[in-house]
């Protein structure tokens, strides 16, 4: 089979498209013939080396997310059979051989049925983004029906699914995006209000939207840029969940006192086994019931993985970036 191999940590140039041995499923594992693989920002951090959460043994094949058909099952697996359409969400499960390849092995608990109504590309968009959105909304912020929520960066891979899940939970959703296309995407995902974060003073609209009270919850994708303004837009006793931040910032901690705010950091790597299982179950159920409608952004061929790693870090990314394997 062909796939991507990383033999040393470094820039995206270390991603080599090459022939690899077929991975063999062990007990409790499933081998999937991949049709699409999802690309996440974390993939680039791991490839660079020194990522705080995970350092794979070299050489390795990247990728935790993907979708395809079951090719072979290992001993003790009776929940799948060859030919089944599935998606793979393998972050946090040690048995994944990497989804940037024609064949990938994963623990059976990381493999779930892919509804016939969804494409393989949509299946590849589920894993890390949806699990991150679920954990931020329900395991950290404990979002409740009727609460107001600002999703800062709602047109991205995590943000669009957080918007869908928050809407399905009965929250009043305010999303932000940086282009007309992004604004329409967020509105279609269920946001009642959409703000263009490329315009100066866009958060001034929050006063009218919330009647001057501020929002109960904020999901933040770029805390180094937005956290200070988030705290100003927050209601008293509000919660901010930091999903992403790429550098440091300078702000007044007094803002947390004024709002008696709670700031949570979140990373799916730290989910307990039970939390991970609950999130996977919740996401799979929401996918089955149509509450999650995965949004695919750019689609690039597998051999252009290096270009995909450059693309995923651009702020204009909308939806999930996917590598086409077949």
TrEMBL record:
Q: Give the SUPFAM superfamilies listed for this entry.
A: GroES-like (SSF50129), NAD(P)-binding Rossmann-fold domains (SSF51735)
Q: Where is the signal peptide?
A: none
Which parts of the sequence belong to the Enoyl reductase (ER) domain? 10-323
Q: Which Gene3D superfamilies match?
A: Medium-chain alcohol dehydrogenases, catalytic domain, NAD(P)-binding Rossmann-like Domain
Which InterPro entries does this chain map to? ADH-like_C, ADH-like_N, ER, GroES-like_sf, NAD(P)-bd_dom_sf, Zinc-ADH_QOR/CCCR
Arranged from A to Z, the UniProt key words for this protein are: NADP
Which terms in the GO cellular component ontology are assigned? cytosol
Query: Pfam families from the xrefs?
Result: ADH_N (PF08240), ADH_zinc_N (PF00107)
Q: Name one GO molecular function term.
A: quinone reductase (NADPH) activity
Q: What name appears for this protein in its UniProt entry?
A: NADPH:quinone reductase
């Amino acid at each position: 089979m062909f796939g991507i191999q990383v033999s040393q940590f470094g820039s995206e140039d270390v991603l080599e498209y090459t022939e690899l041995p077929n991975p063999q499923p062990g007990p409790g594992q499933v081998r999937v013939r991949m049709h699409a693989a999802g690309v996440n920002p974390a993939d680039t951090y791991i490839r660079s080396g020194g990522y705080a959460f995970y350092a794979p043994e070299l050489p390795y094949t990247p990728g935790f997310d993907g979708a395809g058909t079951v090719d072979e099952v290992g001993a003790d697996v009776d929940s799948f059979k060859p030919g089944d359409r599935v998606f793979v969400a393998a972050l946090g499960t040690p048995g994944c051989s990497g989804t940037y390849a024609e064949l990938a092995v994963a623990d059976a608990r990381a493999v779930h049925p892919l509804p016939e109504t969804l494409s393989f590309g949509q299946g590849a968009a589920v894993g890390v983004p949806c699990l991150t959105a679920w954990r931020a909304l329900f395991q950290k912020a404990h979002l409740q029906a009727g609460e107001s929520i600002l999703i800062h960066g709602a047109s991205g891979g995590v943000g669009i699914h957080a918007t869908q899940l928050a809407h399905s939970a009965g929250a009043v959703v305010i999303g932000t995006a940086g282009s007309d296309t992004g604004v329409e995407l967020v509105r279609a995902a269920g946001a009642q209000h959409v703000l263009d974060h490329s315009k100066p003073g866009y958060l001034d609209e929050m006063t009218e939207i919330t009647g001057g009270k501020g929002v109960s919850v904020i999901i933040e994708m770029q805390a180094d840029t937005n956290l200070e303004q988030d705290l100003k837009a927050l209601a008293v006793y509000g919660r901010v969940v930091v999903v992403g931040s790429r550098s440091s910032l300078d702000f007044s901690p007094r803002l947390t006192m004024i709002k008696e705010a709670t700031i949570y950091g979140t990373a799916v790597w730290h989910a307990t086994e039970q939390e991970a299982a609950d999130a996977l179950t919740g996401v799979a159920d929401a996918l089955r019931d149509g509450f999650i409608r995965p949004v695919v952004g750019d689609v690039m061929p597998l051999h252009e993985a290096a270009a995909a790693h450059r693309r995923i870090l651009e702020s204009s990314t909308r939806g999930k970036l996917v590598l086409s394997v077949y």
